[in-house]
Amino acid sequence: MSLIVQGEHVWLDDSTVPGGFGIPIGARVESIEGSKVVLKDDEEREINIQRAEAELLNRMHQGSVDTVDDMIKLGDLNEAGILRNLLIRYRERQIYTYIGSVLVAVNPYTFFPIYDSTYINEYQGRDLTALPPHIFAVAEQAYSLMKREKHNQCIVISGESGAGKTESTKFILQYLATVSGQHSRIEQQVLQANPILEAFGNAKTLRNDNSSRFGKYIDVHFNKSAVIEGAKIEHYLLEKSRIVNQMPDERNYHIFYRMLAGMSPQELRSLHLTTPQDYYYLSQGNCFTCQGVDEARAFHVIKEAMEVLAFTEEEMWRIFKIMAALLHLGNISFQATVHENMESCEIMNAEHTNYAEDLLGLPRNTMEKAFTFKSTYASGEVIYSPLSDSKATDVRDAFVKGLYGKTFVWIVRKINASIYKPKDEKDGRTSIGVLDIFGFEVFDVNSFEQLCINYANENLQQFFVAQIFKIEQEEYSREGIEWKQVTFQDNQDVLDMLALAPMNFIALMDEESRFPQGTDESFLHKLNANHKDNPYFVKSSSLERTKFGVVHFAGTVYYESEGILDKNRDTFSGDLIDLIAQSDSNFLLDFFIKERSMGTETRKRSPTLSMQFRRSLNVLMKTLSNCHSSFVRCIKPNNHKQAMVFDRQLCWQQLKYSGMLETVRVRKAGYSMRHTFEEFVTRYHMLLRDSEAKSRNPQEVSELIASSLLSSTGWVMGTRRIFLKESQDKILENARSRLLTSKVVLLQRNIRKYLQQKRVRKERNGAIVIQKTWRGYKERRAYNTMRRGFYRLQAIVRSRLLVKKYHTLKLQMAEEQKLKLQEQKRREEEERRREEEEKRREEEERWRKEQELRRRERERKRKEDLERRAKEAQMEREQREKNRGEGLTLLGRSSAGKATSQSTALYQGTSASTTQDLGALSSSLSEMLTRSNPTRGAQDGAQYVPHTLTSTISSLSSLLKPSPGNSAAFAVSLLAFGIALGTPPTEQHNQQQQQQQEESTTADSQASTSRQQSQRQGFVSPLRTEARGPQSSNRNGPNSELRH
């Protein structure tokens, strides 16, 4: 007994805490107060015990206090040490741990971001122990060994349902597909096989939302360059009973729910489907959803995966039709009746029967006969016997299970056809196999499936133990250690009882299944009779008459014998084969091509399901034996699928079931503790008192330490390591602990002294620092005050200078702005004047053009007027000449003579100058007359002059200087002259003259309007003003020339 110390770790018997199950739990000494000790265990519970009790507790080995990556390094290499190491690492979110070369994976029930390409690149090409434990490290080890040794590898993944086996398989395949280098279609096909297999082979159970209900071995093939070139999938023991029966809160296979959620309404109508709640095969467990799963999206992923694996649209549709037919078959119910005094039945709801027949391509009413009658051959005749409603239900369920099983087998074959490449011996192909198989199962009711599953686990346990021994022996051989064979109680006797010894379980089951009179009771009776003395067999009791027990390596399991033979037979009756043969679907007929080719007797002699499973398992074990194996043990931390919750008892049970604890015992049987020489010297060198020995090489020092402190047995030196029994390791640990304890007391005393001295020095130095700091603070404060004053003064001066500069710049800017505005106005004024000048010039030019046009127009009108008047004068003259007679002519001449004489007298009385003017005027008149109509002469032209005589007289009056004495005579002379020229103007002529005056007035008005418009524009054309005189002088008509 040693003194307990605060902070020390101990092993506490968990029977003293709630929920204990017999495995010690780690605890830490939190405080010691007198006789009371407070402990805190690994579950964070505080426990109060007496100090005397605490002194009796086992101390935890120093190598077990902190977690380790490899549990071989644990100081306490036992069940408690392994369980505690997994618990602490799980809380630290480290879900992977090694036990030697075995990887233990604890399901976190949440996603960790440690599986992307970054981690793949990190683990690629690295040794197993170079990085923290990871599923990628196991895959890399297998891949590297395959490349280096050109030897096939296998990775065995096992664990309970819900432990994460399927996810681990996905991660391994993902790693292999990535590191193989060339990312071809075959790699994508290998990865895309998983969604299809999960849909048709996985279901939701109480323990796992994605539980694999079959075992599979995926063999990935690599060429000489270690590039994936194909794969092959082997499947084992599909749980077909789940199709027709599910436990509460469980579901059928995923494909049914995803199909109903993901199909279009038109597709559902064509298959006569609705919702999962409407189908008996989907509603027994009253569970229709999986948390966090989008069923519709998952269905599209399945279809995409099928397309990648070369499923045609027709093949996919035919599979979905079969799935729909199975749902309709489940809704068929039978009603008991009596037929010819025999118990019989009939189908109640024919609607679903018709749907199923249509989808399977069967004629109408063929199912009812196959389900409700049984045919037998007697004397060459076929006799149909009616079946009860329960028997008919069994026949229906057998048909459904067989049809689903055949569909699953076809799907696996189709996948293999896409990804498998037949081996060529010349290509040097190697492979890595990944085995994802069901773990050990113990339920409230265990039947045929559990017996086969546990038989498979017994084989895997035997294989695992053999591999562990092999690895142990190889380790001792490498180190040059003499190895004595360790006797170990393995599970070979259980395997013999189940499948190898005479009258074994499988042989008896197969025999009873073939006997026509074989029953479950007869099978159980034979088991009791043949194995009653076997220690691994538990006979049925009076309370449990239909059950028997088997003592497996992981514990005793009781199996229900009722129905076990029917499940083992797993064959279609002849009536169901005949029913299938009537289908017009070649796709469905190919499923049963082998059964249809066999006769009734041949079908009876066909291997039972247990024999088939044993044969495939033997092939699997042979394949694994020819490979270098790696192991992954998956652990489910709790039964409630809660993230980061660790149930110690459940995990301990799984460690026991998976053989981890057996592995520990194997290691303990040998030299369980091993250290390199350097590690050993580093840990135990203080136990040597000889200082000279410490200078030797590590191997010699290690041997010296062991020989001086240990007995001659229990340890051995290898070439690189020293191997010790657990008891010898404890001796070294105790010696080291005592030495360290004695040194600790001295160290504590010196440390206390040092700490007190250090505290005094620190306080004294602190006082000095405070004083120094205060003085400095006062000086700095005064300096800062003065500096802030200078800063303020500088700021004021700078501010005033800036204000002055600002105003100066502001005035300069204003002056510049003023000059700019003036310059801008000047430029605008010049521009305005220039534009006005341009407008004036344009107006003048327009005015000139208008005047020219007007002048030409007046000239044209004047000419037209002259011509018109000449014509009118001619017409008037002709008329006068016609009307006048000669008398008028003579009168005219006489009057002309008188006028002439009077004019002569008047002319003689005028002055000489006036006379000259009259003479000139006379000449002008004659010339005008002649010019006006040169073709007629002066007399004819005179006929045209009378209507212009008024203007002529006005001119003569202005030339003469009238006087009282000659005015009358002059007037008479002019009158006579006018008479002589002709008659006064006619009324038509007066009208024409009035029209000319109106036109002249209109022209003046237009000219005035034009001048006003010009004035509005700011100027008056000087040319227009100058032209005003001539224009107005021409207003009196075309004969205005006579005025001059």
From TrEMBL:
Xref: PROSITE patterns: IQ, MYOSIN_MOTOR
Top-level taxon: Eukaryota
GO cellular component: cytoplasm; myosin complex
Residues annotated to bind ATP: G159, E160, S161, G162, A163, G164, K165, T166
Record keyword Methyltransferase present: no
One Pfam family, short name: Myosin_head
Location of region: Actin-binding: 617-639
Location of this chain's protein in the cell: Cytoplasm
Domain (Myosin motor): residue spans on this chain: 66-737
CDD domains: IQCD, MYSc_Myo7
UniProt-annotated stretches for the region Disordered: 820-914, 983-1044
Entry-linked InterPro entries: Actin_motor_Myosin, IQ_motif_EF-hand-BS, Kinesin_motor_dom_sf, Myosin_head_motor_dom-like, Myosin_VII_N, MYSc_Myo7, P-loop_NTPase
Listed Low complexity bias regions: 991-1017
Comp. bias regions, Basic and acidic residues: 820-885
Gene Ontology molecular function: actin binding; ATP binding; cytoskeletal motor activity
Keywords, sorted A to Z: Actin-binding, ATP-binding, Cytoplasm, Motor protein, Myosin, Nucleotide-binding
Compositionally biased residues, Polar residues: 897-914, 1030-1044
Keyword Magnesium belongs to the record: no
Similarity comment text for this entry: Belongs to the TRAFAC class myosin-kinesin ATPase superfamily. Myosin family.
Protein name, per record: Unconventional myosin-VIIa-like
Taxonomic source organism: Actinia tenebrosa
The organism's taxonomic lineage, starting at the top: Eukaryota, Metazoa, Cnidaria, Anthozoa, Hexacorallia
